[in-house]
Task: inverse folding
């Protein structure tokens, strides 16, 4: 029965690929391919669950695929099924089926009909990867898929300014979540000397004993996992991304941000619950964050002028209460709460256009000016203050921008040295000397080889920041990212010893995808004269194939699992030692800003209102 778990991972991807084959005007065929896939998934999950319950409901575990195995490390895709997987799996397939049926008419004759269903199936596949994951590596793969599918659906109306801008805001936070999950995985590997599989969490005594031997890991791993979950579930202070994510179609908001995606952080906290449930400070931190989120989100929801934002903040408040329930050890109650909240928010979002229509019609004929009851006393001033803070959403969005991204953008725009000939010469010299040292074996006798490794890593990080702050040339920003990849690979080789096979895995995807991406940028620039990164150009309209190829190239360059570079990222982290925290931090920051940079190139060049006057424009305030 364990091998049946393969079915639930592969079927959504098969359905996604099949739905991508028909022409975009074949709406009925696309709909039935997607619906048939979801129905098969639902029937299969029902049969598995009944059989599993009748046989005693013992958790199922299956090693799906070992994709990297050497003396020092092994990485595999493992699958796992238990009570938590069953609940989330049923909710995923039920809600996805309902949304697919509703969207047949809601998205009818929309130019992006096929693209919506493809993205929805991609998202559904990512949810199943997370839900049925048997280790952190498989969960991380699903986590990445959720982030990219969110980016594409938030920016679904790609001719408008705000959806594209908000898609970048959300993916920036999601990338931070991905990095922190990678760091938590790395710390776990260092703490336990192996990759943990989720069946081990059923009897966590040995794991907790190993964690307790190092207080740093005992507190840091659960806190990192908490921040990862908080970002994905919009908990304070990361709450502002969820209303921005509502820029996509209402049907995608219903399945993504009303029901499944926004609750996936709760899934993570329940899954890793044995690692922190005996840790009182962490439990208090979860309770405090949940209570604060519920209070702040409720006050903001009460004053929102748009129905989607009201539903978003209301959902965040309920999820905050769920976090409190989990911290109190009431995980079963939290799962019941999740089911109720997911169904309610999906329903509210789907009927919101009709409700608004009725309310506006009623207000048109029966409007009465509300009575002003605000007093001048202390209570009145306090209510007014809370109202203003809630209207401004406590400036959470601005705080995140100024604290997380603005300092790095400020530094990147002032790193002009690498844009000059001297900068190119310095990077080229460093690369040549480093390669000569590795090939000749001279790095082995170099006393300061770890210092050299750190210098190469800092140079890579500065190149990434330069690309992040680049505004003049898309091709130059792209090349800086590729050079940073090469420098990171050299830094790891000097730090942990040269491994030709690992270097080949890491660089193979980067070189191929990087070359293709550069050729695409060059072709578009040649046909459309010149462009920089100071505005959106919307070239997806006249160059849709170039846009698709470049998007795949961008994802491959940042390690999305479509090239061996995805494996290379795991290998890179495994070669950073436990006492090299600064090395890990700069490597992680480089990966974050690489993805933000290449996706920003994609959005600026291919998305947004079209630069040519004979295309319809949607201005910023649309």
Result:
């Amino acid at each position: 029965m364990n091998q049946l778990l393969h079915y639930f991972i592969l079927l959504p991807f098969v359905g996604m690929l099949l739905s991508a084959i028909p022409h975009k005007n074949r709406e009925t065929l696309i709909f039935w391919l997607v619906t048939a896939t979801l129905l098969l998934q639902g029937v299969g999950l029902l049969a598995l669950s009944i059989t599993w319950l009748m046989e005693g409901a013992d958790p199922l575990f299956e090693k799906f695929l070992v994709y990297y195995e050497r003396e020092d490390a092994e990485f595999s895709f493992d699958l796992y099924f238990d009570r938590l997987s069953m609940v989330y799996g049923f909710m995923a397939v039920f809600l996805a089926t309902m949304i697919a049926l509703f969207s047949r008419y809601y998205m009818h004759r929309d130019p992006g009909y096929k693209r919506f269903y493809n993205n929805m199936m991609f998202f559904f596949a990512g949810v199943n990867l997370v839900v049925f994951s048997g280790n952190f590596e498989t969960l991380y793969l699903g986590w990445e898929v959720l982030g990219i599918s969110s980016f594409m659906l938030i920016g679904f109306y790609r001719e408008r300014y705000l959806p594209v801008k908000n898609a970048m805001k959300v993916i920036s936070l999601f990338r931070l979540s991905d990095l922190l999950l990678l760091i938590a995985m790395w710390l776990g590997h260092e703490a336990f000397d192996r990759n943990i599989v989720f069946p081990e969490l059923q009897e966590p005594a040995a794991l907790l004993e190993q964690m307790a031997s190092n207080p740093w890991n005992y507190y840091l791993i659960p806190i990192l996992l908490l921040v990862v979950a908080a970002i994905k579930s919009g908990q304070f202070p990361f709450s502002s991304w969820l209303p921005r994510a509502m820029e996509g179609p209402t049907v995608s908001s219903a399945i993504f941000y009303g029901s499944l995606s926004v609750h996936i952080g709760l899934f993570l906290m329940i899954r890793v619950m044995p690692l922190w449930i005996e840790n009182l400070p962490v439990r208090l931190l979860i309770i405090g964050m949940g209570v604060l989120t519920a209070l702040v989100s409720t006050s903001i929801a009460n004053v929102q002028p748009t129905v989607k934002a009201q539903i978003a903040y209301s959902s965040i408040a309920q999820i905050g209460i769920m976090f409190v329930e989990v911290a109190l050890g009431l995980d079963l109650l939290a799962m019941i709460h999740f089911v109720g909240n997911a169904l309610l928010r999906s329903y509210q979002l789907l009927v919101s256009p009709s409700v608004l229509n009725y309310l506006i019609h009623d207000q048109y004929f029966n409007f009465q000016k509300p009575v002003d009851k605000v007093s001048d006393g202390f209570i009145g001033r306090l209510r007014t203050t809370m109202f203003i803070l809630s209207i401004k959403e406590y400036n959470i969005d601005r705080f995140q921008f100024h604290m997380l991204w603005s300092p790095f953008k400020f530094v990147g725009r002032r790193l002009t040295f690498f844009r000059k000939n001297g900068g190119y010469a310095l990077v080229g010299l460093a690369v040549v000397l480093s390669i000569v040292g590795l090939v000749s074996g001279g790095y082995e006798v170099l006393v300061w080889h770890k210092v050299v490794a750190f210098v190469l890593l800092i140079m890579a990080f500065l190149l990434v920041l330069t690309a992040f702050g680049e505004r003049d040339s898309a091709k130059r920003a792209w090349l800086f990212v590729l050079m940073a990849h090469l420098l990171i690979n050299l830094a790891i080789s000097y730090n942990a010893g040269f491994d030709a096979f690992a270097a080949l895995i890491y660089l193979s995807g980067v070189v191929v995808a990087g070359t293709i991406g550069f050729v695409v940028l060059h072709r578009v620039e040649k046909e459309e004269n010149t462009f920089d990164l100071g505005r959106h150009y919307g070239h997806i309209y006249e160059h849709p194939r170039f846009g698709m190829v470049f998007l795949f190239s961008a994802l491959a360059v940042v390690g999305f699992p479509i090239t061996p570079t995805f494996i290379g990222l795991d290998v890179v982290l495994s070669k950073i030692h436990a006492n090299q925290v600064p090395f890990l931090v700069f490597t992680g920051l480089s990966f974050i800003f690489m993805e933000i940079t290449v996706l920003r190139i994609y959005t600026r060049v291919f998305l947004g209102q079209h630069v040519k006057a004979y295309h319809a424009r949607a201005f910023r305030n649309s």
